[in-house]
Amino acid sequence: MPRVLFVSKPIAPPFHDGTKCLVRDVASQLRAVTPVVLTTPQALPLLPHGVSGRAVYGSGGGFSPALLDNARAALSLLTGPRDDLWHFVFAPNPRTGQVAKALRAVRRIPIVQTVASPPRRFADLGQLIFGDELVVQSHATADGLASAARAEGFALPPVSVIPPPVPQLEPVSAERIERARADLEIAPHERIILYPGDLEVSSGAEVTRSLVEPLRERMPEAAVVFAYRNKTPSAAGKAEHLKHVLQSQRVRITDRVRDMHALLAASSIVIFPVDDLWGKVDQPIVLLEALALGVPCVVLNQGPLRDVEGAAKLDTIEVRDWLETISSLVVPSAARADAIAAGRTAASSVYASGVVARAYEAIYLRLLERRRS
Length: 373
Description:
Elements: E1 3-7, H1 18-27, E2 34-39, E3 52-55, H2 67-79, E4 85-90, H3 94-107, E5 111-115, H4 125-128, E6 133-136, H5 139-152, E7 159-161, H6 174-183, E8 191-195, H7 204-218, E9 222-227, H8 235-245, E10 251-254, H9 260-266, E11 267-272, H10 285-292, E12 297-300, E13 312-314, H11 319-330, H12 334-349, H13 353-372
Parallel strand pairs: 1-2, 1-4, 2-3, 4-5, 5-6, 6-7, 8-9, 8-11, 9-10, 11-12, 12-13
Helix pairs in contact: 6-9, 7-11, 10-12
């Protein structure tokens, strides 16, 4: 079968990055091609069945691979086995674009390029776009890309919109849920309202902060959890400020969630009033995992989040509107049951790894056939 090499961050633990999860979950479900990923020596035996690895990275790495790791990956592409197709999965940037173009010119291997997370704005597309076919993860990004291409007179390759995948998740045990609550010192009777977003970039943290007091007034058993990651140097300072402002409220602000699936399963609802997804995949994996686990999600109906199937959507960040929607979905009701069903349906029919893998395979086979003809 044709061999497809995924060019991405190391496919190795920890899997807290949407890009790495996308490659792992798509590669594990491919049937018409042979998938190969870039990884570390330690992670080779951990790869999913049917997925081959090339140990070119030194470590699992953080959000941005070290320059030495990038150089080793490029050298592997230049001198390694001749694959039938390369699939680049990165946030577009000029350095990767330049390297990819040079490698393609030498090796003459067709390329599929997935825009893992879009830049703040598309500009100088000639430095960012290098694939023979392009994949984006939302219609908002596709529209932004098309608009920039028209403004620059840049001829885009064929563009497909394919959402990120979510593998089939095992049910979360009562013991894991109990441990997740204990980690945050949240009692079994308290209803967790979870915000799993950034603290420093978008509107998400501020809207959630504004919701804390009215939620507590309406639902004394509510426990609001901010689960964030330190993606910029200012995150820790923002967390300390939130803790100071909300110190008298029943909140938890943490960047140390040991078991996110357990926390999701323990939550009554996930809220995402985010107006800026910079640095994230268009449809954040944590939301899709929540839907798969049967947890209702509410998102801001703006930008890429418009595409999140199965989530409730609000057109505004007005606190009153969010309060009413959260209140209607947290307690047992027909609305909550419908929200849970919609999320599970989306997880199985839109975001399932096999469904997404088939969409990518169609592109691979089309591009390979075009090359042969």
